[in-house]
Design goal:
Length: 476
């Protein structure tokens, strides 16, 4: 322990006694000094408003480096014990109260609802693999380069850097034909639906119902449409995807052509053309939800339908599967005639997506980090998909697995009448699963199918084996 009286009276009028204990502990001198100062403030020995010695003099008095003092002060400013203001130096905060938990205060975690032990529901990527370092590097570069105008009110179309980067990326990776002026940035697919059909304060939107949708799909999206007053008309599905030859007098069709959600297959080439022909004849559009098009394992990627006719397809994508659903970043690639209407729906200024996030994503794309991340995750998800298929072949050979060529989920077909008891048995074992029934459009005339939609991306790597064991343990 080093006891030191810091006599700084001539310069700042305080004598400061600090007990620097634990100098060889983690963080060394900086941690010891931070601790000592914090204790002095917390214990009331340093009164609110007291001016602390300048870095140089305290460093000299204690025999430590100037940076050591600067770092300790900075940490205590961040915690709320000290304040630093240009011209008046560093002082004890007026009502020194920690803004975040101080190191020594006991941290009591707030009570949390207990979630499932294992989660094999579809929808979320493996968020433990979020590319923190590469994302931070992109973000930092983007901020350093950004002109000052970036921090003012923003254009609702989105940053030009991002729209240019997406134009190049989507053409190369997904076969999308566009130019930056046709892209409008949004906060994801759900936001795109709200903008297109209008809801709440967004006005009437640019499209009207009724809208044809796939007989199995996300209930959440159907709910958004219903909230906007849009009637949805279900198209049955077979092994070639949605039966688009059934399209009639609807005013648009929403499809997941690369990988039907949730049943899994791609839309057959002939049906892609049929959907486009219908949209041309009706003077309307196909809404293409390309939610996980990057993740295809066994065959060449299925390109976007948009590439067939950019004037009759609205292509909608987001980073929710490829990076994280928390970023809330997405894009709409629009036929020219809809651009103004969508921009009008967004309002005069960008109100949804952070411009700095947009710039970060632009750098992430142009630096190649996005491709690297997707390639790495593709390998990882493919390996998980293989483990799922192998585990089922060994332990539940009667269960048919479909929709495994792409995406982050598979469908396990079950004998009639067994879906519900299986999901319930899983819940009892702490395993969250979703059955096909939850995705079924209430008005479809398709015979119901029993099955499980198993998302194999969500568990962290170390928990995946145990999650598979739990799954195999509840299958009929
Ligand atoms: C079918 C489908 N479409 C789109 C999305 C993306 O939605 P969002 O961009 O609003 O997160 C998801 C979920 O990630 C999805 O499951």
């Amino acid at each position: 322990m080093v006891d030191s009286w810091v006599n700084a009276a001539e310069r700042i009028g305080v004598d400061l006694h600090l007990e620097l204990s634990g100098l060889s502990g983690p963080g060394g001198r900086r941690a010891a000094l931070t601790r000592a100062l914090r204790e002095a403030v917390r214990g009331g020995r340093l009164a609110p408003g007291t001016r602390l010695p300048p870095y140089r003099s305290l460093a000299a008095d204690l025999g430590v480096a100037r940076n050591t003092v600067a770092d300790a002060y900075a940490e205590l400013v961040a915690e709320g014990w000290l304040t630093a203001r240009q011209g008046s130096g560093t002082r004890v905060a007026d009502r020194a109260r920690p803004l975040r938990h101080a190191v020594q205060s006991p941290v009591v975690a707030p009570p949390r609802a207990r979630g499932p032990l294992f989660d094999l529901r579809p929808g979320t990527p493996d968020v433990s693999e979020f590319p923190r370092a590469a994302w931070s590097a992109s973000y930092r570069r983007a901020l350093q380069r950004a002109p000052s105008e970036v921090f003012g009110p923003a254009d609702p179309a989105g940053r030009p850097e991002l729209r240019e980067a997406l134009t190049e990326y989507l053409a190369r990776a997904r076969g999308v034909r566009t130019e930056p002026g046709r892209i409008v940035i949004c906060s994801g697919f759900a936001h795109a639906l709200r903008l297109l059909f209008g809801a709440g304060t967004l006005g009437p939107g640019v499209l009207r119902g009724p809208l044809a949708v796939e007989a199995y799909g996300l209930d959440f999206h159907r709910g958004l449409l219903a909230d906007a007053g849009v009637r949805t008309v279900p198209l049955p599905l077979d092994e070639e995807g949605a039966r688009v030859e059934r399209l009639g007098r609807e005013r648009g069709v929403l499809l997941t052509p690369a990988h039907q959600f949730p049943t899994g297959g791609p839309l057959h080439a002939r049906r892609r053309t049929t959907a486009i022909d219908w949209a041309r004849a009706r003077g309307t559009v196909v809404l293409e939800d390309d939610y996980d098009g990057e993740f295809r394992y066994d065959r060449r990627p299925v390109g976007a339908v948009q590439g067939l006719d950019p004037e009759h397809v609205m292509y909608l994508g987001s980073v929710s599967k490829s990076l994280s659903p928390a970023l809330r970043l997405g894009w709409m690639v629009l036929p020219e005639r809809y651009v103004d209407g969508v921009l009008a729906a967004k309002g005069e200024r960008e109100a949804w997506t952070s411009v700095t996030d947009q710039l970060g994503l632009a750098d992430f794309l142009t630096s190649g980090a996005y491709d690297r991340h997707v390639r790495r995750m593709r390998q990882r998800y493919r390996a998980r998909r293989d483990r799922l298929v192998e585990a089922l072949a060994a332990r539940a050979p009667d269960v048919e697995v479909t929709g495994v060529a792409a995406g982050l989920h598979a469908v396990l077909r079950l004998p009639p009448g067994t879906e519900r008891p299986t999901v319930e048995a899983a819940v009892r074992r702490g395993l969250a699963l979703e059955g096909l029934a939850g995705f079924r459009h209430p008005d479809t005339d398709m015979p119901p199918r029993d099955g499980l939609v198993v998302g194999y991306a969500t568990p962290a790597e170390h928990a995946y084996g145990a999650a598979l064991d739990a799954l195999c343990g509840v299958l009929p």
